[in-house]
Every structure is written in structure tokens, then in C-alpha cells.
Write a structure and sequence with these properties.
Elements lengths: L3 H12 L9 E7 L5 E7 L11 E9 L2 E10 L7 H8 L2 H4 L2 E8 L9 H9 L5 E6 L6 E4 L5 E4 L3 H16 L11 E5 L4
Parallel strand pairs: 5-6
Antiparallel strand pairs: 1-2, 1-5, 2-3, 3-4, 6-9, 7-8
């Protein structure tokens, strides 16, 4: 039982074997007005120097009913960007508006700096109707006290990242099988779609 987009996540990890289990991968489906279906996937990018902060977006297209891997393309200046942001940075505005479905290994975040959950439909993919995820990410914004004594919102998602890392390491140990063990949970589905 792997979803269509879950399979693209697996394919992304196969095509990009250096992506660690501590990086989330998200995939999106784009449908062109002529009916052509394209898929895009990317991994999150950590804190890196500007020269190394390059996101990598993989692209597939369905031609004559068959899925074809097109390639993986660099996206510069992606330091501290989440996988959803890397895909959005790769697509132009017109293409981003054609994205209708998405799936992420980790539940899209509510971190103050990225807030993927809020921005997915509001800013990045305005016609996104269905978004799923595989591993829960804490929804509660915890607080911590900064040096100046003020409370700051934060999220502690280390446990979810460790779960993802363990799953990816086991998948690698299993020989990176194309058949997956991804069962998506619904983040949102827009009524009427």
C-alpha cells in the first residue's frame, strides 16, 4: 500500500541516495491544462554555507501512460528551507498554481520561520486540494524562555525526525526497495474535490 505520491518520495530517495533520514522529502502532483501529469519532489536543506545550500528537485512526467524520470535539478539558496519550500522555489508561479496534490514524509510544520502548513495553500500552491503526510510532527507550539526573559514559541520535533531517520535507515538496509511501507494520513482535503 503505497500512495502515488509516496512512490515518488521513494523514487526521490533512490535517485538521491545521499539524502539522509534526517531530511524530510515531499512530493507534489501538477496537472497541466492539456492533461499532462508531472511530479516534483525535494528534500529539506539544513543549515549550510550559501555555496552548499542547494536544494535538489526531481521531476517525473507521465508520457503515453508511463512514468518517465526527467532528472534532478539544483535550486540555489535553500539553506534552512523545508522540502515544500524547495519544490515551490523550483516552480514558477504559473506551474505552482497547477499543483493539486501533495505528500510529505513528515507532517508539514507550524514553525514560526517556515510555517509550511499555513503557507502550502495560502501562498505556495494556491490550488493545492489534498495534502497527506506519513509521520506526525508536533502541532503544539511549546514555549521556552530566551536570555532576555521573554517567552518564544518553538517546536520540538526531534522524536518525529528520529522516527523518520530509523525508517530510512531500515529501508536502506532492506536494499532500498521500490515498494514502500508508506501509509499517508490526511492533513487536509478541500471540500468538493
Amino acid at each position: 500500500g503505497t500512495t502515488e505520491l509516496g512512490q515518488r518520495i521513494i523514487d526521490y530517495r533512490i535517485e538521491n541516495p545521499t539524502v539522509s533520514g534526517k531530511s524530510n522529502v515531499a512530493a507534489f502532483k501538477l496537472v497541466r491544462p492539456d492533461g499532462t501529469v508531472e511530479y516534483y519532489a525535494a528534500a529539506s536543506v539544513g543549515t549550510l554555507t550559501k555555496e552548499k545550500a542547494i536544494g535538489m528537485v526531481a521531476k517525473w512526467v507521465v508520457e503515453d501512460g508511463k512514468l518517465k524520470y526527467v532528472g534532478t535539478f539544483p535550486v540555489p539558496n535553500m539553506g534552512n528551507k523545508h522540502s515544500e519550500q524547495v519544490v515551490r522555489a523550483y516552480l514558477n508561479d504559473e506551474d505552482a498554481a497547477l499543483v493539486t496534490e501533495g505528500e510529505s514524509e513528515l507532517k508539514p510544520c507550524q514553525k514560526v520561520t517556515n510555517n509550511c502548513r499555513l503557507n502550502l495553500q495560502k501562498q505556495w500552491f494556491t490550488n493545492l486540494r489534498d495534502m497527506n503526510y506519513n509521520i506526525p510532527y508536533y502541532d503544539i507550539l511549546a514555549s521556552y524562555t530566551a536570555a532576555n526573559g521573554k517567552l518564544k514559541p518553538s517546536t520540538n520535533n526531534e522524536e518525529a525526525i528520529e522516527i523518520l531517520d530509523r525508517l530510512i535507515k531500515q529501508w536502506i538496509a532492506d536494499g532500498r526497495p521500490r515498494t514502500g511501507h508508506r501509509y499517508a494520513s490526511e492533513l487536509f482535503t478541500t471540500p468538493g474535490n
